[in-house]
Amino acid sequence: MRDILPQLARWWRESRPFALATLVDAAGSTPFPVGTAMAVDGEGTVLGAISGGCVDADVAATAQEVLRDGRPVLRRYGPAGPDSGPFDVGLTCGGTVTVWTEPVPADGARWLPVLAEAVRAGRPVAHAVRLYDTGSSHLVVLPDGGREGSLGTGEADRDAEATARLLLPEGGTAVISTGPHPDVFVAAHRSPPLLTIVTWTPVAGPLARIGAELGYRPVVLEHRPAFAAQARDAGVEVLPGLPQTGLRTLRGEGTLDRRSAVVVLTHDARIDVPALLEAAEAGVGYLGATGSAATVRDRSGRLRAAGLDEAGCSAIHSPIGLPLGGRAPAEVATAIAAQLVAVRVSQRHPDPRRAVASGC
In 3-state terms, what secondary structure has residue 295? Predict the structure, then answer.
């Protein structure tokens, strides 16, 4: 849901009623994860998608029906059969999804701007919605103990809040069931992981944009004022000063962690070696550095001389990026982002067949 929250918040501020469809359960092969959402307003404007095509038209039509009659709907979609026609509704990937579609009244939903602002600011937040309800019952749970909204009863609120606080540290979703049917769906949004880019270069801009699309918070570490100004003009967050100092600051704040990615674009051993050492010590999830073969050889010797062990060397992707063959800045950024995704997926679902080469 987080990708459509800014527009939903605008609709709310405009007092525009809409219907919200949330993917609350999935089994087998499905296109998108649980928690994905779609919204449809009274004019038929659609935000987001539930399946990327298979059932989206039917979900959008259901949303408009829900807007007209004010009654929410829980609907399950299964695999498309071998005899399905071109306009029959079903998942061609063979899985099953359950979608909760509800009206969001223009004069209510005070939980929505609270949720949207927390996500915009990069703060952890959890959101619960009551299923099989005749209205629109939501609860937003904040890590500082704050709450907004209600699921209708004190018991439901307490159960949802307890579940939300269990999910908040790592994120994820859960369903609370007190009978034969699921009663409450809970989704927790973590603060986005850092994509820390060491120095502003022509590659940094497209990489920051792609990284933001991938759910990262791009931050540029830049010690040269003129280039720091370029990054700010491009709308990218900048941490001025020596990159290794910035990395140490982020590490001290607890934001540079195993979910983070650090990309070193410097080509200057005086800058990139201290930065790589700091990032390797922080144990970030992805660490890469650009450079020619000669630069990589020289940098490897410097890193080993500085005491970086084999484990630390194996954490560095250098030369950086998947070998896509592109040379333009956007092409190089795409290759780096592709490798970042490959590493991130392999860490979630280890598979030796998807090994990504690394090492200094």
Answer: helix
